[in-house]
Structure formats: C-alpha cells, structure tokens
Amino acid sequence: MIDLITISFKDLLVTTSQILNLHNPAVFLLLMFLACILIGFVAVLAGVGGGVLFTPLMMAFTTVNPDIVRATGLAIATMSSLMSSKTYLSRNIANFRLALFSAIPYTIFAIIGSIIGLHITAVLGNLGKNLIRFGLGILVLFIALLFVIKGKRVEWPNAPENKHDALANTLGLDAQYFEVSLNRTVTYKVVNTQWGILCFVGVGLVSGMFGLGAGWAIVPVYNLVMYLPLKVASATSLIVIGIGDTAAMWVYVNSGTMIPLFVIPCLLGVVIGAQVGTRVMPKLKARIIRWVVIAVMIVAGLRLIVQALPTIMGVI
Amino acid sequence: MASQSPTYLASKIYGEIAYWLAIVGVAISLVGCIMLLTHYPENATCTLSALIKGDPPREILASCLQVTSFNIKYVIEAGKTIGLQLDLIGLFIFGLAAIISLVIASGFMLKDRVIGYGIISIVLALILILSMLGLITVHL
Fold first, then answer.
1. Is residue B6 part of a domain?
2. pTM for this prediction
3. ipTM of this predicted complex?
C-alpha cells in the first residue's frame, strides 16, 4: 500500500518535473517555496510546528541528503519559535524563568543529539542514513499517535493540593498571567520539576538528532507532568525551542550541512504559511485538517520505515 | 492585570531582539540567494542538481560553490561571490539572534538583581557560543 502510494508519488514528481522544467533553479526554488508555504499553513492549522512536518516529508519523499534536510528542519523550528515567542513574552503568558531553566538540559542534549545524528551518517554511511530514516519513521508514527490522543491535554490542570516541589519553590517557578478569555488573573504552581528536567534530556536528544522542533513533546511535559496551563505550556515551549535548536543548528552549520539556497526558501515558505494559517484559522474547520495531517504523518512514517528496512535487514 | 515578575522586562527584551535579529538575518540571506540566482546561475544550477541527486553537503559546497570550509571568515577572506557572502552573513545573524538576546536579557536580570536567572542566561549564552564557534562539531 505504502509502496503503491510512493511509486505513484514518484511518477507524479517525475512528470511534474518534466512539465515544469524542474532543473531550472528558479522553478525548483519556487516550487520548494510553495510546498513549504503549504507545510507551514497546514502545520499551524493542525497545531504542530512546521519542522515536525518538514523533516519527515522531505526525508520520505525527496532525494535531498538527510543531513541537509535535518539542518533545514532545525532552522525552520528555530525561526518559527523565535518569531512566535515575542508575542507571548510581551503578553507575559510564557514563563520565562521556567523556559531558561528547562533550556539548560534541552540545549545540552540537543547538541549531543545533533552530534550523534551527524556521526551516525558520517561513520556508517548508507546504513547510518537508513538508521536515521528508520528512527525518524518510528518517531513520526509516535507523534501521530500523540496527536490522536491530544484530547487528554488539560487546559487548566490543577496540581494535587498535597504536592509541593521544593526545587520549583527555590527557583521561583510558580507564576501568574492575565487570561483574557476568563477576564481574570490565573495563578499556577509548577510541580514535578525533576521529572520535567529528565524528560527534557530525552526531548533535546531526539530534536537534535532528527532535526525536528519539539513542541509536540515539550507541551505535554509542561502540561501533563508539570501541571502548567495549556496556553502557558505552548508559549514557554517556544522559548525553549528557540534557544536549544539554535545550539543544535550551529553544529549542523559548522559541519557544512546548511545549504543557504535550500534553507532560505524553505524557511520563508514555512514562516509565511504559518502566518497565513494563523489568520485564517478561525474561518476553517481545523479538525478535518488535523486528521489529514495525522494521515500524512502516518504515511510518511511508514514510508521512512519501508525505505530503511531493506538496508538495515541486509546488514543484520 | 497580573503583577509582573522581576524577569518580565528581560523576557520582553529577549523576545523583541530575537524576533528582529532573526528577521534581519533571513532577509540578508534572501538577498544573497537572489544574487546567487541572478548573477551566478551556473552555481545555483549545480547546487540544485546536486541537491536533487542527494549528494553529500560537503561535496555540494566544494564542487558547486568552491567552498571548502563553511566558515564566514574563510568565505569573506577568500573573496567568494557576494551572494554567498550575504547568505552566510544572514545565517550568522540568524544564528546569533538567541545568543545576543540572552546576553542582553541577562544584563537586565543582573541589573534587576535577579542574579540566579541572570547567571542561567549567561551559561546558556556560553553553551550557544561554544556551539557557534565550532568547538562542538562533527567533521563529515
């Protein structure tokens, strides 16, 4: 089934490239730009970051080198986060202290993840590329599953009364913000800080290794583990990604995997698509689009696994 | 309104600086890309073909852009095309956005006597600088 879809997708690509003269750089870049606008647009409507869709789709359905795709994915995640965090910080919704504290493990492990990811492809060659594809495929299927059960997220979680977090108290992580929809100030306390930090170690590692943004993981950690209101969790995650993915991105830049001619149209496309998506979101049925994105992620995830398995099995 | 935390001003400044530096960086890179496309179409075509073929990034940089070290100082000193120079300067500014914002935010936090978080910001900025300087890298 996946093979059928991908074979026809490849045929479609070949035919399109012949019709549109894809080897003309301007045409190719324009097409890439338009595809990225669509990715950014759909990603916002589905409630995910552009990088989460960009990396698996590009790796599953194009022949562009995986290192270049991951470097570009990280640049997209960084750009989206840096641009969005401004609004949340000026409205005092994001918890800046918590973001800085969480950014330490996330950043360190995003760097380690990117080094491991680049080492795998550099040392193991084709097998390494396929191991990354396989890992990303599994991860994308897991993210799709997370979106299916997204309903479990709690808009206003209440930390258990008897739960006290000495570390959060010492660091002064509890905060408050003005919630416009309720027309009142919402005060929340942060708990399970140590578990949250442990989660950020893993999330950072995965983000750096696969070149993905990590909002899909950070928001549930803040919301379900540390009991932050959903809006605060989303806003704070943007700052963490902006800092951590910048560090991982530099590892890719210094390794020569960032090709500006590819990165810039993709970056601009996703950012413009996201801006348009944010504006038209109230007028569209985002629920249907969310399911389409979940379906696309499942196909991309399975495609990555199918692509990687022959090489991996051949070695084993 | 909610009472503002002592880190509010620093966080606001962080957000503003990061936002504008990211935009300026990408805008400069965009100009570089356009110049590369219009003034050096053979380089652009070569890069594109190599991208579609799935060539490794080092090979693309070396054969299509004649860059052996993806380092801004090298590219400028070696007198590479203005398009490529602008591309790299833009990416450099984009990559600096979070670093500069953190350093300035830490200054505001230290000034407001939020010492702990001022130090955390500096530590984060240092980690980013180490990564930027290529002290943490992989040779492919």
1. no
2. 0.89
3. 0.91
